[in-house]
Amino acid sequence: MEYPNENQNTSSFSLSECLVNIRENTLVTLTNIASVLIFDTYDSYLINQLINGLLYWSTCYSNEIIDSLQSSYISIQHLSIEILTKLSVHDMNMDFILATPSFYCIISLFHILTNWLNVDNMNNNISNSYINLTRSQAYIQREFAIVLLNALIRCDSNVAHIIAHIPYTISLLINFLEDYEKKTLELITRYGSDYVLNLINNQETEQILFTTNDMCNNMCNI
């Protein structure tokens, strides 16, 4: 008579599900602390592993990475790029990121960020990154892209030449400013210039204009 092995998986527990949950929880934790992390205060091996992981998840086109998580409306890719964006508040962090091989991943990141600039054709974009995104999510991703691209260019001017040669990048950046101008003019026509001036100086700007003055400045710096 055979007895069940206690080491066998007799419950619904799955090692793969456990690892997926650990990855998700780790990324969520990093999004909460990324803005206060400064890489030169940590072990270089640890930082290299972190950057390599973030670049991998940011540039992977697997459906598992692009599709929204079951527990959230955002994806692994979204979380990874959000972490990189928050890390970019410290220029030294960007030096570490650009110095991490391979540069192929950095180039792939540029293309992903350029795709994220496109909020008008979310479901007809070059990649599948926008599938199942709401428009508000797309605007958030566009702002991440602008902040991160600005930080990368600020760190290394050669990045600007690379980005400029990616198809549609310049036109998408111009579209961003034109969208802001169009929305602003519509509000001026409807409510008057005083309303728009007051709006720009309060917290409702992003909800109505889908961006802020700081974001426009970042875009112009690109």
From TrEMBL:
Compartment(s) of residence: Nucleus
GO molecular function: nucleosome binding
GO CC entries: brahma complex; nBAF complex; nucleoplasm; SWI/SNF complex
Pfam families hit by this protein: BAF250_C
GO biological process, alphabetically ordered: chromatin remodeling; positive regulation of DNA-templated transcription; regulation of transcription by RNA polymerase II
Keyword Transmembrane: yes
UniProt entry keywords in alphabetical sequence: Membrane, Nucleus, Transmembrane, Transmembrane helix
InterPro entries linked to this entry: BAF250/Osa, BAF250_C
TM stretches of this protein: 96-117
Domain SWI/SNF-like complex subunit BAF250 C-terminal: 15-189
Protein name: SWI/SNF-like complex subunit BAF250 C-terminal domain-containing protein
Organism phylogeny: Eukaryota, Metazoa, Spiralia, Gnathifera, Rotifera
